[in-house]
Amino acid sequence: MTLKLTVNGKRHELSVPPQTPLLNVLRNDLALNGPKYGCGLGECGACSVLIGGMIARTCVLPVSAAVDHDITTLDGLAQNGQLDPVQQAFIEAQAAQCGYCLNGMIMAIRALLNHNEQPSTQQIRAALEHNLCRCGTHVEILQAAQRAVVINAAAQQEVSHE
Amino acid sequence: MPPRSRRYPMSKGSLPTQEVGGEGLPPQLTHVRYGVVVRPPYYHWNGERFESAHLISVDRTRLASLPGQVDVVVEGDFVGVVAESIAVARDAAKQLHIEWQAFCSEPNKTLKHSERAGGELRYQASHSVASEQRIYGWPSRMRWGNHPGWIVADGSDHQLKVWGQTTTPVALKQDLVRLTALDASRIELYSTDPQQISNPAAGLGRHCGDDAAVDAALMSQALGRPVAVWLDARYIQDVEALGQAQRMSLKAELTDSGEIARYHYRHANSSGDVAAVALWLSGRATEPAAMPETVPESIPEAPADDSDPAPLSSSFLPSYVLSPYVFRDQHLSARLQQPGQTPNSATLIGIQQAFARESFLDEVARDSGQDPISLRLRHLKDARSIKLIESVAKRAGWQVPFKKPSDAVPQDLLQGRGFAFAQLPDRHQRMEAGVRSAWIADVAVNRVTGDVQLTRLIVGQDDGPEVDTAGLQQTLQERILGEARPLLGQAPGFDEWGDGSDAPERGVEISPSTLVKRDSPAVTQTKTVSLRPASSDVLTGAELSPGVAVIANALFDATGIRFRQPPFTAKRVREALKEAAMEGAAQQRFAKRAPGRRWLAAAALTTVAGATAMAWPWKSTLAPVARPAPNLYSAETIERGRLVAAAGDCAACHTSEGGSTNVGGRAFETPFGTLYSTNITPDEVTGIGQWSFAAFERAMRHGISRDGSHLYPAFPYTAFAKTSDADLQALYAYLMAQPPVAAEKPTNELSFPFSVRSLMAGWNALYHDPTPFQPDPMQSELYNRGAYLAEGLGHCSACHSPRNAMGAEKSGDAYLAGAFVDGWEAPPLNTLSRAPIPWSETSLFDYLRHGESALHGVASGPMAPVVAGLAELPEYDVRAIAHYVAAQMQAPTGNDEATMAGAEQRVTKAAESSPGMEAGERLFEGACAACHVETGVPSFSRASTNLALNTNLHSDHPDNVIQSILGGVHADHVPGIGSMPGFADSFSTTQVADLATYLRARFAPDKAPWQQLEKRITDLRQPHHNNTNSTP
């Protein structure tokens, strides 16, 4: 059975069992290593990607569910050599220790900003509530998220002026 | 897949919004309301009079709880309910308590309609036909409509506008004039189906689009507001009630040489049209005054040497009842109530007469052993007619008997050829100057499905307009044969299979795009097209006049069954074939049966069938047969079988984990031991390859294997017994057409005495009723279709009804009362349902069609493959099942505002964690919350049903919750359904119990805590391993 996936704007035809977790297909078949395998139970968020601009935990999502949708992984977030504002913010805030969870953190903030451009601190905390970090970098991550809101707003401004 | 939030209950309003108005529709239609009619329990047009049960009272008190304004329109015996949405209107119609006076027929007014007219009678060979008499009929309504759609009437002020579908606009306008007492110029008709305007079949008679239009107009006029009515297969009820409009009786006396010496034709009730149902019910239609027969009973004998039939077209008779044939003694009469009143009716009566006459001549010819064409030629004097018929016969390669190509054609197709002829008067009623038209048609009849296909049509026409043969063929196929054909996606019979293309029958409110056909170029500019009388179009309809008889004659040639009334729908053909087959069987048993006493034979057969059924348990092996030839069944039959298999979900039980489809071997744990399903591929050794249809049917209906041994009722033959013959045949055809796979099944592991199969004989005598499904005439087509599927193939009760100590399903109040299967609870589908938010028909449909209902949760466990199987079925069928189950639950049609508000309230209440359960809360936050709690970030993988609405958490039994935590939720075969990992390997039994207790307390706070959770979890944990697919 062939499945058609659109990942980071590229179309792929894959011959995989439809119930394979999307994460395995992205990492093993498409060599996209932005999403990470963490808990395998949808608990930690390390495997997150965007599907149709919404956050999705791919270790528990069968690949068949993602057919006909646009999938964006961390690998495809940068546009035209320009980092996504959220990525830029995480670099500027130096918000990583081991960095394993950062894929999920960045994707979650990206999904939040897609939906709400000016989230409050409270809303940022709620958005990240179920993303686990074992290194204890939470303070830096929250600062990065705040910074992402600012850079994102500036980038939006630029786009609208063009 | 649409975004996951598409059915999220809280985010959207409750009822569909009404996008009425916009371009093309007048602005006042923005306030359209929706009407549903409630017909009396009995109403009937008997050919001369309309009779019905009379209204005593209407109790509206229960309507108060419904949202918005609900109006009840009562006039005479007409009852209609009008509301802000179609869903509310349908609910209101259910809530309305109406008292009817039972109808009693008045014996002194009994009409002479006891004669069986228009029925299907089997051909009985008779070698000495001295005289022959037959009665033919024509229905008041040809069919319920062209396709499902909205009919809108706006009867405000002093005018009336109607948007609808009709093939008889003149008759419809007359009805509307009678209804509203408005001048005809103040009534405007618009078509929502521009294609039909130029349809040449307009002359074949009315359909229920007219009845729906009058329903809408009546309600609209009463309320002074535009009212929309949904036209769909439910209107078939009106088709049946209005029955026969016309009755044609013919009689012939033959000489020894086979020539027709005397010919009688009598056309009764030639009123042309029977008024719309609402007119009769409201008392605004008056019975047509029976006119005396104004035409002379007899016509002087035509001079034998006169080759010109012109004298017959003298002023004595309307020309459309004239016959082109010359008989020595001819009596023609017609009792015309309103002769020639509408431009259509003359044409229509001409077609009816041609149907009766040409069918009759065919019968006379066959009964007297003559070639149907030769018989006609003997009685034609007109040289042009003779020449035309001869050339058409030559062109078609007409020969008697028709040589049927038998080898290449699947053997379930019966082939036949027929002939018909007509001569039509010209505009000035002159026969001689008119058109002659000779037709030869070939048909193929599918004996399993009853479908009739027109395979070839040859039409010869003299002095007429060019004939568009392809157009005629399509018209005949669709209009005469098409009513019940899957081709059109309509499903009027309880065992008809649609193709899923039918429009949604509810939940879709009016918008400009539903009022006009989307893909029709004709409406891009104006959006509506004014109706012109059909007679002014390309074809007058008169060209069709031999078309109905030619099919009846070809059908007879193919099947030996004479259809004396159109239309020749698949359902009628199938039933007639079945009856003929039964009669054939009875004839073998009762050689001395009195001729013509068909009911006697049928009754006798029933007894025999009963006796055989009783004898079966002790019957032995049915002889093995060779696997049926590949061309025994047509592709159409096999496709129907595929749908039957999908509805019965054969593969779910007959396929083991990872095994090939239908090879069996799947284990079933029962209280009596372990059973394994069998190989139902056509392998001759290990499968059913050597099973005859008789053996297959015996297994499906009586639970007896081909070798005579009993099957255990884990195989739900108790339900499958209800399957119709046509569906069983098609299923057999489908299974036999699959590739054979050799696979021995494991031996059952049953404890004594259950291992003794023959004990099942006694079980069957006690608990099994092998009667096929009987539709309930008091219920709608949709309900009966749903009941047929749910009680039979769908075998819902096999899982959802509790069983007694002997493993038999309980009935009565316990029917669908819930049970346990494979460690899962199959929740009650009757009024015992524990769902926190009551189910509605809409929710049931969502659940069955899409695998999830936003107000209840997703299909998982053993229900997931059921939903996957249902995905194969046409949408109408799934709606029908939802409709039937909703009726068992006494559930409303849609989810009203109060329901949605109740759901919202539950969700809000469960937003806060309950105190004192920190262990469970920690587990929930760590393992569940990421997907089950709203975080403000739009999520694709979040569970779309809030746990506060989850039916399983509100059940008396924790089983499904435990199963879901341990094994996860997987519906691999249902695209778009979420997936939840299992926690059997990461949670201890205590942790699962803590979590389940917490979930119950937080999300079902009104329910008592579950008891003895740890024990239940230990029991259910057994089969679960790590159910997570994801590994590094």
From TrEMBL, chain A:
<keyword id="KW-0001">2Fe-2S</keyword>
<dbReference type="InterPro" id="IPR012675">
    <property type="entry name" value="Beta-grasp_dom_sf"/>
</dbReference>
<keyword id="KW-0560">Oxidoreductase</keyword>
<keyword id="KW-0411">Iron-sulfur</keyword>
<dbReference type="GO" id="GO:0046872">
    <property type="term" value="F:metal ion binding"/>
</dbReference>
<dbReference type="InterPro" id="IPR001041">
    <property type="entry name" value="2Fe-2S_ferredoxin-type"/>
</dbReference>
<dbReference type="GO" id="GO:0016491">
    <property type="term" value="F:oxidoreductase activity"/>
</dbReference>
<keyword id="KW-0408">Iron</keyword>
<dbReference type="InterPro" id="IPR002888">
    <property type="entry name" value="2Fe-2S-bd"/>
</dbReference>
<dbReference type="Pfam" id="PF00111">
    <property type="entry name" value="Fer2"/>
</dbReference>
<dbReference type="InterPro" id="IPR036010">
    <property type="entry name" value="2Fe-2S_ferredoxin-like_sf"/>
</dbReference>
<dbReference type="GO" id="GO:0051537">
    <property type="term" value="F:2 iron, 2 sulfur cluster binding"/>
</dbReference>
<dbReference type="InterPro" id="IPR006058">
    <property type="entry name" value="2Fe2S_fd_BS"/>
</dbReference>
<dbReference type="InterPro" id="IPR051452">
    <property type="entry name" value="Diverse_Oxidoreductases"/>
</dbReference>
<protein>
    <submittedName>
        <fullName>(2Fe-2S)-binding protein</fullName>
    </submittedName>
</protein>
<dbReference type="InterPro" id="IPR036884">
    <property type="entry name" value="2Fe-2S-bd_dom_sf"/>
</dbReference>
<keyword id="KW-0479">Metal-binding</keyword>
<feature type="domain" description="2Fe-2S ferredoxin-type">
    <location>
        <begin position="1"/>
        <end position="77"/>
    </location>
</feature>
<dbReference type="Pfam" id="PF01799">
    <property type="entry name" value="Fer2_2"/>
</dbReference>
UniProtKB/TrEMBL annotation, chain B:
<dbReference type="GO" id="GO:0046872">
    <property type="term" value="F:metal ion binding"/>
</dbReference>
<dbReference type="InterPro" id="IPR037165">
    <property type="entry name" value="AldOxase/xan_DH_Mopterin-bd_sf"/>
</dbReference>
<dbReference type="Pfam" id="PF00034">
    <property type="entry name" value="Cytochrom_C"/>
</dbReference>
<protein>
    <submittedName>
        <fullName>Aldehyde oxidase</fullName>
    </submittedName>
</protein>
<dbReference type="GO" id="GO:0016491">
    <property type="term" value="F:oxidoreductase activity"/>
</dbReference>
<keyword id="KW-0408">Iron</keyword>
<feature type="domain" description="Cytochrome c">
    <location>
        <begin position="636"/>
        <end position="739"/>
    </location>
</feature>
<feature type="domain" description="Cytochrome c">
    <location>
        <begin position="781"/>
        <end position="889"/>
    </location>
</feature>
<dbReference type="GO" id="GO:0020037">
    <property type="term" value="F:heme binding"/>
</dbReference>
<dbReference type="InterPro" id="IPR000674">
    <property type="entry name" value="Ald_Oxase/Xan_DH_a/b"/>
</dbReference>
<dbReference type="InterPro" id="IPR009056">
    <property type="entry name" value="Cyt_c-like_dom"/>
</dbReference>
<dbReference type="InterPro" id="IPR051459">
    <property type="entry name" value="Cytochrome_c-type_DH"/>
</dbReference>
<dbReference type="InterPro" id="IPR036909">
    <property type="entry name" value="Cyt_c-like_dom_sf"/>
</dbReference>
<dbReference type="InterPro" id="IPR036856">
    <property type="entry name" value="Ald_Oxase/Xan_DH_a/b_sf"/>
</dbReference>
<keyword id="KW-0479">Metal-binding</keyword>
<feature type="region of interest" description="Disordered">
    <location>
        <begin position="1"/>
        <end position="24"/>
    </location>
</feature>
<dbReference type="Pfam" id="PF13442">
    <property type="entry name" value="Cytochrome_CBB3"/>
</dbReference>
<feature type="region of interest" description="Disordered">
    <location>
        <begin position="289"/>
        <end position="310"/>
    </location>
</feature>
<feature type="domain" description="Cytochrome c">
    <location>
        <begin position="915"/>
        <end position="1003"/>
    </location>
</feature>
<keyword id="KW-0349">Heme</keyword>
<dbReference type="GO" id="GO:0009055">
    <property type="term" value="F:electron transfer activity"/>
</dbReference>
